[in-house]
Amino acid sequence: MRQIVPNILKMKNKILLITNVIIVWGFLTSFETKFGQTTTPSYQNENSPSKRALQLLRKMSLEQKIGQMTQICFSTITLDGTKTLHISPDKFREAIVKWQVGSFLSGTGSAEQWIDFLTEVQRIALEETELKIPLLIGIDHVHGANYVDEGTILPHNLTLSCSFDTALAARLAEITAIETADLGLQWNFTPVLDVGKNPYWPRFYETFGEDPLVCAEMGASIIRAYQNSSSIEPYRLAACAKHFIGYSDPRNGFDRSSSEIPEQILYEIFVPPFQKAFQSGVKTVMINSGDLNGEPLHSSKRYLYDLLRNQLGFDGVVVTDIKDIQKIVEMHAGAATFKEAVLMSIQAGVDMYMACNSYDFISTMLELVKEGKISEDRINRSVYRILKLKYELGLFENPYPRKDRLMRIGSVAHKQIATDAARESIVLLKNENLLPLSTKTKNILVAGKAANSKHYLAGAWTYEWMGQPDESKHPKEMETILEALQKEFPNSKVEYVPNAEINLKLLEQKSRASDVIILTVGEKPYSEFKGNINNLLLDSQEQTMIETAAKAGKPIVLVLVEGRPRIISHLSSKAKAILFAGHPGFGGGRAIAEIIRGSVNPSGKLSFSYPCDVHSYEPYYRKFSSNYWRQYTKLCSEEFPFGHGLSYATFQYENLTISDTVMFSSDTLIASVTVRNLSDRDGKETVLWYIQDEVGSIVRPIKMLKGFEKRLIRASSAQVFHFQITAKELSFPDEKGRHLLEEGYFTLMVGNQKIRFKLLQ
Ligand code: BGC
What we know:
Blueprint: E1 2-5, H1 8-36, H2 49-58, H3 62-68, E2 70-73, H4 89-98, E3 103-105, H5 111-128, E4 136-139, H6 157-161, H7 166-181, E5 187-188, H8 212-227, E6 240-244, E7 258-259, H9 263-279, E8 284-287, E9 291-292, E10 295-296, H10 301-311, E11 317-319, H11 324-330, H12 338-348, E12 353-356, H13 360-370, H14 376-392, H15 412-425, E13 427-431, E14 443-447, H16 454-458, H17 481-488, E15 493-497, H18 504-512, E16 516-522, H19 540-550, E17 556-561, E18 577-580, H20 588-597, H21 624-628, E19 651-658, E20 662-664, E21 669-677, E22 683-693, E23 704-713, E24 718-725, H22 727-730, E25 732-733, E26 739-742, E27 744-750, E28 753-760
Parallel strand pairs: 2-3, 2-12, 3-4, 4-5, 6-8, 7-9, 8-11, 14-15, 14-16, 16-17, 17-18, 20-28
Antiparallel strand pairs: 1-26, 9-10, 13-18, 19-21, 21-24, 22-23, 22-27, 25-26, 27-28
Beta-D-glucopyranose binds near residues 105, 140, 242 and 528.
C-alpha cells in the first residue's frame, strides 16, 4: 500500500516564496507612495536590508543595474593581468566607472596585500562612482584561507568528511571566516555540496564523500558557521552552495561534462545537501558548469527555475560559474550566439554572471533590454537580491578591511586546530599487527613523492589554483611526513630515498637494510579539468615502486595522499598497513606520523567506498540487484567499504534495542545501542545508523545512512548511543520529489547489530 505524504517542506517553501513576493510588492508600493513625499529617509538610514535594497534600486539606471549583475576577475584589473594584488587604476576605473561592475573575485597574496588592495578598490568605488555602492568580493577559500599567504591550510573536504564530525567542520569554518572577513572578502564560494559518488570526477576531493546525509550535515554546519560567526563582527560572510546540480556524476568522469541522472535519483541523492543548505539559510548558490539530462544548467529553466526557485524555494543570489554563459555556446552548443545564451540564462534565473575577463555581458544585456527581450522588471528582481545581500552583509556600513586583528590569521591556535582536524580525519584502512610502530624500530625507510612534500599534503587550491609546488612558499613550521616521522622516532634512523619511483636500485638496496618501509603513493595535486583521467589505477611508476620495495620482504606501510581513491587492490596485499590521508593540510605530516607511532589513535572512517577495480565504483547505497549477482560470482564490491576505519582500540556493539517493533507514520521510535571499548586505549568511534527498506515500489538502496555520531569512548568503558526514527527516515522521493511512505518492514543496522520493525499506515 502506498500513500503520498504531502511534502510539507515544499509547501512551506512555496508559502515562503509567496510571502516574499507579497512583502517585496508591499515594499515597492509603500516605497512608491513614500517616494512621492519628501519625508523618505535616505537608503543609508533605513534598517531592513530589503527596504534599503528597494530604495537604492529605485535610484539606479539600467546600466548601473546590469553592472551589479556582473562579476569580474581581479586578474582583469591588475597591472600584470595575474591574480597578484597590484591594481591598475585605469583598468579598474574602466570596470567600475565605465561598466559600473558591482562584484569581483579571486586573487592571491599576503594578508597585508589583500587589505591594501581591497581598501584601495573600495575607496575608488565609494569615491568615484555615482551611487557609492560597495563592491562585493568573492573568493574560493575552500580549505581555509587558502589564497592568503599566512592562511591556515585545513584538510580538503574529502579528508575532513572522514572525521564524521560536524562540530569540527564548524570550528574549521570559523577559522576560515576569521581569516577571510577582515581582509575585505565577504563571499566565500564554498561549501561544495556535490555528492562524490564518481571517483573519476577530478573534484572528488572537494566533496564530503558519497553520502547525501554526510554532505548535507557537513555543508550545513559550515554554512551556519560562516554566516552566523560572531568572531568576525562587524563583518559578515556569505556562503555559496555549489554547484547546483548533478555536477559530480558525469558519465565520463570528466570535469564540466554531461551527467545523466534520473530525476528520482536526483531527488534522493543530489538534492538533499542543497535542501539542507537552504534550510540553513545559505545566501547564494553557484551553478553546475556541466549539462544534466541534456540541459546546460546555466540555461535550464527546469533546474534553475522550476527546481531551485520554485520547488526548493531558494530566494538568494544565483551566480554562474566562471564564464559559463559563454560556455553554453562554446562547450554545450546549447545556443548559437552569446546573445542567445545570455537571454536563456537570464530567463532561467541567473542573478549574477561571473564574466571574469569580458564586459560583453553588460553590452549584450543592454541590447536585449532595448530589444524588449528582457524586461527591466526581470533585471530588478536580480539586482534587488544582490543589493539585499550587500546590505545583509553590512557592506554599506563596513566596506573597508581592517588590520588590527591580523595576528589571528594563521595563528598558532588555528594551526593546532588544523592539525587536530587531520588527526580526526585520517583513516587507518588496514593493519596487520604492524601499527602502532614501536619507537624501538631501528631503521625506517621512507619513500614516495608525497613523503617530503608540503605541496602534496596541502593539495590544490593552496596559494594557487593548482596548489603551490614551490615548497618555500608553505609555512616553515609545517612538517612533511618525513620530518614529522623523524621527530616522532628520535631514536630510529629514518631515511628517505628521493625519487624512489625512478631510483629503483637504491630503493631495493635500502629496503633490504630497513626494518619498516613507509611509502607514500597517490596523486599530485590538481584542480578541476586538470585532474581529468581515464584510468583510476595508481600511477604505474608508483606501482613499480611498491613492487620493488616489497621484494625486500620487510613490512610496508602505504600512505595514500590523493584526491580520489586510486586503485591499489592488486598491490594492497604487499602492505601490512594502509592509511588514507587524502590532502590533509597543514597538520597532515604530523598527524600521519603520530598515527604511525600511536601517540594518536586513528578515528577517521571512509566517507566513500574505496573501489577495488577501475570499472566498479558503486556507492554503498547501490541497489538491491547489484548485490544479488555477487552471490553467484567472486566479483569484488569494493576494496574498503564506506564507513570503514580501524582504531587501536577495539569496539564492540551490543544490545541494540528499539522502543517498538511496530510504528505508525506519526510515531517516533527510539533505538539504542551500547558501544564498548574492550581495549586499554581511549578511542573515538563514529556510530553509523543505517536503515534498509526491505521492499519498495521504487527499487531501494541496500541501505541508507540516516544518522551518525562520533564520540570518545574511554578505555574499558561503554557508552550508549541513541537514534530517533520518524517517517522522515523511512520515506523516499519519487521522480517529482514527492515523498512516499510505504508500509512494510525495515531493518535498522548499526555496527554488527540489526533489528527489524514494521511501519503501518
Ligand atoms: C570553479 C568554481 C569556483 C570558480 C571561481 C570555477 O572554475 O568551478 O568552483 O568557485 O571557478 O573561482
